[in-house]
Write a structure and sequence with these properties.
The chain is α+β, with helices and mostly antiparallel strands and 214 residues long. It has two domains: 1-43, Arc Repressor Mutant; 46-209. The protein has six helices and six strands. It has helices at 12-25, 29-40, 46-61, 116-139, 166-189, 194-209, and strands spanning 66-68, 75-81, 89-96, 103-112, 147-150, 153-159. Strands 1-2-3-4-6-5 form a six-stranded antiparallel sheet. 20% of the residues are buried.
Length: 214
């Protein structure tokens, strides 16, 4: 969205209040003023679009995960506990693009553990998952998005399937995270027996792709 520089004459008390609110929200003075004016005049800002998308994501995730408070409108962090010894925490962090082009944003999945074995399992699952997603996306004519796997942290860009409404984008991201979380929890509930459950999970992912590409 194009931006231009303008000069405004405002009361000192107004600027003080704006600065205090901007600090609480983790944004800049200019951005907060822009949001306030846009809401007052019924203009859509990137922050409004991102909040709407995240609202749909949260609606789909429901009580399955703990939603973390964020200071930035572009971020949403969700946490859940794995049914595995030590009950490690896994987080899903979505960061949306202000002006989406090829990608809607980025998903980062991270496990909190000091166990090398648990980290190895995490990495092996996501290597499998990348292969599974890549094969099915390629079959539908989509190139697998940019991704990275480090020790206990998986990062993947979220594909932009085209001109979609906020509700559709939110549903696509929410459905993808729910599908991924189910696969993660199934794997960690029985790593040795996961091969028996994998075909059904892969089929379910394929069914999701019929409606959502992300």
């Amino acid at each position: 969205m194009k931006r231009s520089v303008y000069s405004l004459v405002l009361m000192d008390d107004v600027i003080k209040a704006v600065d205090e609110q901007a600090y609480r929200l983790g944004t800049s003075r200019s951005n907060l003023i822009n949001q306030i004016l846009a809401e007052r005049l019924s203009c859509v800002t990137p922050e409004m679009r991102m909040r709407d998308i995240f609202a749909y994501v949260e609606e789909l995730i429901g009580s399955a995960m703990q939603i973390q408070q964020q200071r930035s409108a572009s971020l949403l962090t969700m946490r859940t506990v794995l049914e595995y010894k030590y009950r490690p925490t896994i987080s899903y962090k979505v960061e949306l693009e202000r002006a989406p082009d090829k990608y809607l944003g980025t998903l980062r999945v991270q496990i909190r553990t000091q166990s090398e074995r648990l980290t190895e399992l995490f990495n092996s699952f996501f290597l499998y998952r990348v292969q599974t997603e890549s094969a099915q996306l390629t079959a539908k004519g989509w190139e697998y998005p940019d991704w990275e796997l480090t020790s206990g942290c998986f990062t993947r860009r979220l594909l932009n399937a085209g001109e979609v409404a906020d509700e559709q984008a939110g549903e696509a991201i929410g459905r993808y995270i729910a599908d991924l979380d189910l696969a993660v929890k199934t794997f960690f509930s029985d790593p040795r027996g996961f091969a028996a459950a994998a075909p059904d999970l892969e089929k379910q992912y394929g069914q999701m792709l019929r409606k959502y590409i992300v």
